[in-house]
């Protein structure tokens, strides 16, 4: 990443890690966070999904939460996700499911985490739905990949994960996971990582992002490209056109609250578009990562604050 944007990202993530800043934001920032959070309750999130579907936009629904301190919390999240899967089916909306491994106990007990996630994936399989296991920071990368491959080995193939372009290991992981038949969501990456683990220059991240997108498209593997970057979106459209890759072979993924008009426009042009819709009360870590991605997100929140 370039020096300015990386300094901004690191600074904001550092500030947001301050306990006083977190306390004040949780107390006063709920209305501002609503820009990026669909609802604090499942019912409100399902209504948002229905509205997006009517615009031709697909959805991935995420119940916010990560970094739990006790396995009892993980059990609560597991039950909420089972309720979430059933809620999607009952509402008749078009939405996948997204969850975080640490939310299910990965940092506390990997086997308990696996059992919790397997219960959700099984529930989704019974409903004909798909579960995306999010990729968190690098200490959890290998464990997350191993978990997804283990689920596939049990015949639960309705599960995939996320690959981050800024990690140096990424191309090797993509080759392995494509061969294993694992559906991947391709992203740049949003966590604070050291130089020995992740590329620090924006140009290097972009080059690697394009490389792993090509690896998918060239092999005819369904490709989920998560980006708000016009340069990336335009490049994918041109690459697909030049190589006669049909629009049903890939999808663009964007976040709720960001570039909603662009999401609707792409959908109206016949592209598959999926919106990542988070809901829940544990919104602070997700919210701060969104603000840290680029100054424009912070400016948008500040403008809303003073209106």
Automatic annotation (TrEMBL):
Pathway: Amino-acid degradation; L-proline degradation into L-glutamate; L-glutamate from L-proline: step 1/2. Binds 1 FAD per subunit. Its EC number is 1.5.5.2. Residues 46-298 form the Proline dehydrogenase domain. FAD binds at residues 135, 164, 188-190, 202, 227-228. Substrate binds at residues 100, 289-290. Its cofactor is FAD. GO terms for molecular function: nucleotide binding; proline dehydrogenase activity. It catalyses: L-proline + a quinone = (S)-1-pyrroline-5-carboxylate + a quinol + H(+). Keywords: FAD, Flavoprotein, Nucleotide-binding, Oxidoreductase, Proline metabolism. InterPro entries: FAD-linked_oxidoreductase-like, PRODH_bac_arc, Proline_DH_dom, Proline_oxidase. One of its GO terms (biological process) is L-proline catabolic process to L-glutamate. This is proline dehydrogenase. It comes from Paenibacillus albicereus.
């Amino acid at each position: 990443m370039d020096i300015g944007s990386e300094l901004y990202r690191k600074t904001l993530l550092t500030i947001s890690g301050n306990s006083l800043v977190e306390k004040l934001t949780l107390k006063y920032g709920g209305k501002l966070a609503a820009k990026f959070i669909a609802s604090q309750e499942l019912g409100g999130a399902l209504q948002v999904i229905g509205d997006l579907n009517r615009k031709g936009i697909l959805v991935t629904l995420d119940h916010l939460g990560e970094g739990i301190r006790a396995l009892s919390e993980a059990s609560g999240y597991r039950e909420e996700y089972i309720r979430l899967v059933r809620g999607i089916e009952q509402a008749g909306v078009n939405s996948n499911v997204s969850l975080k491994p640490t939310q299910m106990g990965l940092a506390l007990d990997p086997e308990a985490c696996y059992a919790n996630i397997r219960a959700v994936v099984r529930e989704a399989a019974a409903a004909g739905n798909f579960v995306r296991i999010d990729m968190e920071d690098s200490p959890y990368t290998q464990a997350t990949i191993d978990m997804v491959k283990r689920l596939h080995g049990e015949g639960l193939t309705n599960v995939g994960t996320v690959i981050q372009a800024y990690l140096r290991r990424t191309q090797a992981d993509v080759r392995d996971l494509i061969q294993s038949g694992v559906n991947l969501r391709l992203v740049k990456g949003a966590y604070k990582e050291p130089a020995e683990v992740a590329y620090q220059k924006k140009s290097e991240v972009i080059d690697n992002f394009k490389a792993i997108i090509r690896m998918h498209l060239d092999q005819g593997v369904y490709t989920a490209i998560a980006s708000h970057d016009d340069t990336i979106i335009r490049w994918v459209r041109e690459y697909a056109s030049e190589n006669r890759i049909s629009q049903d072979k890939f999808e663009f993924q964007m976040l709720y609250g960001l570039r909603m008009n662009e999401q609707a426009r792409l959908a109206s042009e016949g592209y598959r578009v999926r919106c990542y819709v988070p809901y829940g009360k544990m919104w602070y870590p997700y919210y701060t990562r969104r603000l840290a991605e680029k100054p424009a997100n912070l400016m948008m929140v500040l403008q809303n604050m003073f209106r």
